[in-house]
Amino acid sequence: MKVLAAMSGGVDSAVAAARAVDAGHDVTGVHLALSAQPATLRHGARGCCTVEDAHDARRAADVLGIPFYVWDLAERFRADVIDDFVAEYAAGRTPNPCLRCNEKIKFAAVLDRALALGFDAVVTGHHARLVDGRLLRSVDSAKDQSYVLAVLTSEQLAHAIFPLGDSTKDQVRAEAARRGLAVADKPDSHDICFIADGDTRGFLERTLGAQEGPIVDAVSGETLGSHQGSFGFTVGQRRGLDLRRPAPDGQPRYVLSIQPKTNTVLVGPGELLDARQVRATRPVWTGRPVPGEPIECLVQLRAHGMVSPAVVSPGGTDPSDLVAELRTPQRGVAAGQALVMYDGDTVLGSATITDAA
Amino acid sequence: MPYLDHAATTPMLPEAVSAVGEAMGELGNPSSLHGAGRRARRRVEESREQLAAALGARPSEVLFTAGGTESDNLALKGLYWARRNADARRTRVIASAVEHHAVLDAVEWLAAHEGAQVTWLPVDETALVSPDALRAAIASDPDSVAVVTVMWANNEVGTIQPIGELAAIAHEYGVPIHTDAVQAVGSLPVDFAASGVDALSLTGHKLGGPYGAGALLLRREVDCVPLLHGGGQERDVRSGTLDVPGIVGLATATALAVRRRDEVAPRVAALRDELVDGIRASVPGVQVNGHPSAHLPGIAHLTFPGCEGDSLLMLLDARGVECSTGSACSAGVAQPSHVLIAMGATPTRARGSLRFSLGHTSTRADVDAVLEAIVPAVERAQHAGITSVLAP
Lengths: 357, 392
Known about the structure:
The complex is a heterodimer.
Chain A: E1 2-6, H1 11-22, E2 26-33, H2 38-41, H3 51-64, E3 68-72, H4 74-90, H5 97-116, E4 121-123, E5 128-131, E6 134-137, H6 146-149, H7 154-158, E7 160-161, H8 169-178, H9 200-208, E8 213-217, E9 223-227, E10 253-259, E11 264-269, E12 275-285, E13 295-300, E14 307-314, E15 322-330, E16 338-343, E17 346-356
Helix pairs in contact in A: 1-3, 1-8, 4-5
Chain B: H1 14-24, H2 35-54, E1 62-65, H3 68-86, E2 92-96, H4 101-113, E3 117-121, H5 131-139, E4 145-149, H6 163-172, E5 177-180, H7 192-195, E6 199-203, E7 214-218, H8 244-282, E8 287-289, E9 299-303, H9 309-318, H10 338-342, H11 347-351, E10 353-357, H12 364-390
Helix pairs in contact in B: 1-8, 2-8, 3-4, 5-6, 8-12, 9-12
């Protein structure tokens, strides 16, 4: 096949491209430039869009002997990922920008362009498996990225190749070293690539403008403190509340909910965070047919989160919505995150969490 | 392999390769006083005379540099500082809007760090600078002008500027003028003395010489503050041990390119016209950018409607045809060209463009290869261009 390997400049995508070459594909490497000013977006830290990363990707392509280009997706990334990220926080939800990037950039803008240009598939270094069109967890559970890929439709998965799913990260690094790829010992990327200093709240304050609002005790109704914008909080968050008064019971307080309309953050004891019922919308089913009745499965409610057995029913007033009844309660379920349903290691489908109780 | 990117770099002339190789085997620092030094010095001075003769300059007007970017920076910063030192009112730089980044960024650096005010000269839709615009720009406040810079011929769309006329206007007001002639030397008749310019940049690798070897032609009476300080080589304006093999290669290639220009330029121009005619005949709606007649013989800059230039480049590259989108930054991301934007093009049109540039080794087979590859490439790129615009 004629395939396009998305090369971030990291070790995973370099080895993925190498394996695609070994598999006999006609591989072209592409680095996605996601910032209009690549050098300014992320100094020093590791992301996916520095000039140095583009250089590393180019050198890996040289070693593999494949053509290499840089595609400028800065405008699409700005509109579909960064603006969406900001809007979601402003609406009191907690987005996952990596998931959105897979959904809108790597397997939409890039895939569409690749197909139009005559490629058959896009190869990435994601840690996940594809078996007969179904998405499965990586064998390396610590590095598994099926959660941020579960949003992809069957059509998108049909044009995706994930060569790393059967390997652990250590195996990938060892292979990179064996192949003479200089990125073999490059540190993993983490955090959010477009927030250079890792300070999400600071980024949101700069983007949306600081706006003082109250932090209110959900039990007593008392105002306990103030904040500079409800968008800076995530349900389940404990740190950074800066509350002057301790709770009467001496237990830590957590963010229970965010009310953007009144710019209010409600806090309370941890047990009030326990959710047994999770509602979600816009489901995508790739691992099984759309269920007509309740199904038993495992659900995961955030990246690297615990899985919980649940019964998922097509639900509520809107037939496209889902309701998951959790067998074991989960803490800190945030609207905007994905509800991903698994059968063992196989992704059945995913949907966007709207609320939890 | 059909190579149509001679404006990026052109194959070295075999004579230049031999001259460089031979010089590399010879010992001697041209600044040394012993026999080996004198022999090296002789090579440099013979090269200086050879280069000067080829370009209508006096040998003492030739300053060897490490290439076009250094020559441009030395001329702009050096003339700016010297003129301002002589009269503190002179802080204005007048530059065309279509300069190469080596000039553009040096001018912007002067504005950001040295208090320069910049007057950008607009261009028309063919990238031509109007002499009246230069006159008006100077006349608005002649005493404030430090230096004028306008390129001899544009590297993206190939438009040739009326350099002689512009130089005459600058001199009416006693203002020095620099020209970036990197694309012009070897392709166009370039006579330094006759042109009237005070400083002229050129580089070896655009005319069949080595990379990293260039020159600034600088009139004797023009003051220029050095960028590089050290041993005082090159009239005390450019220090650094002279690169004898590079200088020999540069002079050999320049002399040959100038001598063969009468034969090469018309042949290249005819191939370029065949290429443009062929593409026009097979791709509906294609636009040819630049001046219809006053252009470099080898450059064809075309806009393909509905296409991304970098998609086209990739598709042609896959078919072995090597060309350019005309501009690239260090990360390899194609920004919409400032040249096209200055010519009044929309960013979409600017991004939908390709530059084919032919040179001394170009053949009919290169043109045929492009004509064979271009139609399927444009069809695919149009498909991709539309897809990526409409995708949700």
